[in-house]
């Protein structure tokens, strides 16, 4: 009571999609596998118990990449990033809820019917190493472009400032 508060909320994401081709295209029937990868818009909202609400989401840059069956047998690499922030001002006691969500999707096509294809390794690097041990390297650090494990991820900053009401 008798104080005004400001809650500054900021969040950001930084990561990469990486695909390593496990095959080649011989032009006869054995082809390089296709892939698709994407990250959805990052939704973010806040609500005050018994009060207002708002949104502060964003759409990451470079949010998808793909290549069809028989496409390129090269390494594919694409960094994605994004951020947004908001400030909430109120007085007295309050309970604030922050909700954030997004979906990562990686698909590698080995094509179970003719023409057969080698599947590609598709992985996201988002601040945590892969846990697959069978020579799967698309999601490992530092990996392609020598990424830093500690720079990648989704980060949320919350700063509360309280000042007396004049």
Q: What characterizes the major β-sheet?
A: 4 strands, antiparallel
Q: C-alpha Rg, in Å?
A: 22 Å
Could you tell me the number of beta strands?
A: 12
State the end-to-end CA separation: 12 Å
Q: Sum up the overall morphology in one term.
A: elongated
TL;DR of this structure?
This protein is mainly β and 166 residues long. Helices cover 0% and strands 52% of the residues.
Task: Reconstruct the topology from this structure.
Elements: E1 3-20, E2 31-32, E3 34-39, E4 43-48, E5 53-55, E6 64-67, E7 76-91, E8 96-101, E9 104-109, E10 117-118, E11 121-125, E12 153-164
Parallel strand pairs: 2-10
Antiparallel strand pairs: 1-7, 1-11, 1-12, 3-6, 3-9, 4-5, 4-8
Description:
There is one protein chain. The chain is mainly beta. Helices cover 0% and strands 52% of the residues. It contains no helices and 12 strands. Strands 1, 7, 11 and 12 form a 4-stranded antiparallel β-sheet that branches. A 3-stranded antiparallel β-sheet has the order 6-3-9, with no helix packed on it. A hairpin with a 4-residue loop joins β4 and β5. The mean pLDDT is 85.
């Amino acid at each position: 009571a008798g104080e005004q508060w400001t809650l500054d909320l900021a969040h950001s994401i930084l990561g990469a999609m990486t695909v390593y081709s496990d095959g080649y295209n011989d032009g006869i029937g054995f082809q390089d596998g296709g892939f698709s990868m994407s990250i959805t818009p990052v939704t973010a909202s806040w609500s005050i118990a018994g009060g207002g609400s708002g949104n502060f989401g964003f759409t990451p840059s470079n949010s998808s990449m793909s290549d069809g069956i028989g496409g390129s047998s090269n390494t594919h690499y694409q960094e994605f990033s994004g951020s947004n922030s908001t400030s909430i001002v109120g007085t007295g006691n309050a309970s604030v809820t922050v909700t954030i969500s997004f979906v990562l999707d990686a698909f590698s096509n080995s094509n179970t019917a003719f023409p057969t294809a080698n599947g590609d390794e598709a992985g996201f690097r988002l601040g945590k190493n892969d846990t697959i041990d069978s020579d799967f390297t698309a999601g490992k650090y530092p990996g392609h472009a020598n990424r830093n494990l500690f720079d990648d991820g989704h980060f949320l900053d919350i700063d509360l400032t309280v000042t007396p009401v004049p």
